[in-house]
Specification:
globular, alpha/beta
């Protein structure tokens, strides 16, 4: 699970270019802002569209602004190559991406360092048609995944292991992204699939059953991490520490019931068309699942375990060396 140990000053690895070093850059949340960072630029790009699920990262940027940093967040709905090119060109400073994307980039020789844990848990459930009420009902059924060499396939392996089933006991169906898998489930083209908690909120009243909650039950699956270049981290250590402080403060802000209304307000500012009641229900579910554990920082053991799972599922071709 995610580490809650006290964080150290940033350290970077001088390992080979095909490694994914981890810089531990967090500092106690009570530390005063470093005057050296005031006025410095900090531009983070998230591999996503603006949506309520990014409220924790966006709030961390607001904390940095309050500490005098010229901080901003951008979103990239295009391919990861677009964001990585901007990172290498210096147009952005930090790139928020799923572990698979960062590892794949590092395996190609891109000098990235994973230095911040943005989303400690994956916002996914394994949800099945109403007539499938338990793992025992999965045998012989069709499981929808984005593709057979992706993260969903790795998640399917986790579910099958929990169900004491083999891959051959079910049919794995490439059904596309969430926007395709949800209608495929409703239409009966697949019997079960991985969807977000938002989809669970939509489908549960219709009798669909959650058989596995990755947020609750797979604490060894990180979602987005923060990546920066070795050169940027070497010359912006104080900013890296400040960002990790802000992320830790943002976790605590999200988890505090006293801030529930403020969290919703900031989330709806990111995605004005989102339904307020459903967003409230979603955040309550994420809090109950401990989606943002207080004090969570990058744990190299978890990171290595995750990339090996993704290699087993052929989501990545090579697991790369991790150095702290």
């Amino acid at each position: 699970c995610s580490s809650s140990k006290p964080a150290a000053s940033p350290t970077t690895s001088s390992g080979p270019s095909d490694s994914t070093p981890v810089a531990s850059a967090a500092a106690p949340a009570s530390s005063p802002a470093n005057s050296d960072i005031k006025g410095q630029r900090f531009t983070m790009m998230l591999q996503s569209t603006p949506n309520v699920n990014k409220v924790v990262e966006a709030h961390a940027i607001e904390i940095m602004k309050q500490d005098g940093v010229d901080a901003s967040v951008k979103f990239n709905a295009s391919t990861p190559n677009v964001a990585i090119a901007q990172l290498l060109n210096g147009d952005i400073d930090v790139y928020g991406e799923a572990v698979t994307g960062g590892v794949a980039a590092a395996a190609q020789g891109i000098p990235l360092i994973d230095f911040a844990l943005l989303q400690p848990r994956q916002d996914y459930v394994f949800i099945a048609k109403p007539n499938i009420k338990s793992f025992a009902d999965l045998k012989g059924k069709k499981i929808g995944v984005q593709d057979t060499t992706g993260v969903n396939y790795a998640q399917a392996l986790i579910v099958l292991q929990a169900a004491n089933l083999q891959v051959g006991d079910v049919s794995i169906i490439a059904a596309g992204g969430q926007s395709s898998r949800l209608p495929a489930l409703v239409a009966g083209r697949v019997d079960a699939t991985m969807l977000s908690h938002s989809a669970q909120i939509q489908l549960a009243p219709q009798g669909y059953n959650v058989l596995y909650d990755f947020t609750k039950q797979s604490a060894n699956l990180y979602d987005d991490n923060g990546f920066a270049t070795k050169n940027w981290l070497a010359s912006h250590q104080a900013l890296a520490v400040e960002f990790n402080k802000a992320i830790l403060q943002s976790f605590a802000w999200f988890n505090d019931p006293a801030n529930a209304d403020a969290v919703i307000t900031e989330a709806l500012a990111l995605q004005p068309g989102a339904d307020k009641a459903q967003t409230t229900q979603l955040f309550d579910m994420l809090r109950q699942a401990d989606a943002y554990p207080n004090g969570a920082i990058v744990d190299t053991g978890v990171l290595d375990q995750e990339q090996n799972l993704f290699k087993q599922a052929n989501a990545i071709t090579d697991a790369v060396a991790i150095a702290e």
